[in-house]
């Protein structure tokens, strides 16, 4: 009997030791699992930030390089690029929940719906006849050019093959030597997205009667912009200025952007506008 009791006592102690060791092992496994999970999440977050870096660079550099594009015409559209902040937002960007202290970039370029004239147009005309009308009620801004000079005008009459202009043409255009296209102004800005991620990069195309912004990338926290200005017409940047100090937007040669991403990462970009001599 004594041997039996002794054996029973030893088995109980061994069981307690085994349970204790098992708890330590389970705790180690749990710690390892949590560490692996956190590492995976961090790796995924880092990959997302890197992807956002690539995408935002592609989106904004493409837009900036196209700023002022006007088909075959030499030079750029007037005010092909402009900048704003919370203190001087244009009407079409009001009430868009733009982040305080963030800058806004607006680029103007020809749409790719280039058309030809059906009839020649003379200086002073307020009606243009076209093969395919690139203007519409929501997008009434157009340009007319012959690769030597251009007119930027706004329409208020829209028909299949006829455009009625608000202001008269300043130049004359032969029907076989001119093209007409729509003009789009696209804004890029950081705004609240209403989700846990907080902020996103948005774009909005200026229009009449339409004001829907399009979300491009989330977790983009802020955007600061400086403009490289040519002050003496030597095609070199003389100074970088914030938007409220730029006097002539046609003198902008380069755009410098500093963008705050998730995980306290920053993206610094220098994008040169395409020269159109």
How would you briefly describe this protein structure?
With 277 residues, the protein is an alpha+beta fold. The protein has one helix spanning 2-66, and strands at 81-84, 104-110, 115-116, 127-129, 141-145, 150-158, 162-165, 179-192, 199-205, 214-218, 220-229, 239-241, 252-261, 266-272. The protein has a domain at 50-70 and 77-108 and 184-272.
Structure description:
The protein is 23% helix and 32% strand. With 277 residues, it is of the alpha+beta class.
Topology:
Elements: H1 2-66, E1 81-84, E2 104-110, E3 115-116, E4 127-129, E5 141-145, E6 150-158, E7 162-165, E8 179-192, E9 199-205, E10 214-218, E11 220-229, E12 239-241, E13 252-261, E14 266-272
Strand proportion, as a percent range, falls in 25-35%
Q: How far apart are the first and last residues' alpha carbons, in Å?
A: 109 Å
Overall SS class: alpha+beta
Describe the biggest sheet?
Answer: 10 strands, antiparallel
Q: How large, in whole angstroms, is the Cα Rg?
A: 30 Å
Identify low-pLDDT runs: none
Q: Return the average pLDDT rounded to an integer.
A: 86
Order of helices and strands: HEEEEEEEEEEEEEE
- The outline comes out as elongated
The amount of helix comes to 10-25%
The helix count comes to 1
Q: State the total count of DSSP E strands.
A: 14
């Amino acid at each position: 009997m004594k041997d039996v009791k002794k054996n029973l006592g030893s088995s109980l102690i061994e069981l307690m030791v085994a349970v204790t060791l098992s708890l330590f092992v389970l705790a180690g496994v749990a710690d390892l699992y949590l560490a692996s999970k956190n590492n995976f999440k961090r790796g995924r977050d880092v990959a997302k930030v890197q992807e956002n870096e690539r995408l935002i660079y592609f989106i904004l550099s493409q837009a900036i390089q196209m700023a002022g594009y006007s088909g075959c015409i030499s030079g750029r559209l007037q005010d092909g690029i402009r900048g704003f902040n919370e203190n001087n937002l244009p009407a079409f960007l009001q009430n868009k929940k733009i982040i305080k202290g963030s800058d806004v970039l607006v680029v103007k370029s020809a749409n790719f719906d280039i058309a030809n004239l059906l009839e020649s147009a003379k200086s002073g005309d307020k009606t243009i006849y076209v093969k395919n009308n690139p203007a519409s009620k929501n997008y009434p801004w157009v340009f007319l050019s012959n690769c030597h000079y251009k007119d930027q005008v706004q329409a208020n009459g829209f028909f299949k093959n006829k455009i009625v202009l608000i202001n008269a043409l300043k130049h004359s255009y032969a029907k076989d030597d001119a093209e007409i296209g729509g003009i789009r102004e696209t804004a890029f800005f950081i705004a609240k997205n209403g989700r846990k991620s907080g902020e996103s990069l948005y774009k909005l195309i200026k229009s009449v009667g339409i004001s829907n912004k399009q979300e491009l990338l989330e977790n983009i926290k802020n955007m600061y912009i400086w403009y490289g200005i040519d002050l003496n017409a030597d095609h070199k940047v003389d100074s970088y200025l914030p938007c409220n100090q730029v006097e002539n937007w046609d003198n902008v040669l380069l755009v410098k952007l500093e963008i705050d991403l998730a995980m306290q990462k920053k993206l610094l970009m220098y994008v040169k506008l395409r020269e159109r001599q």
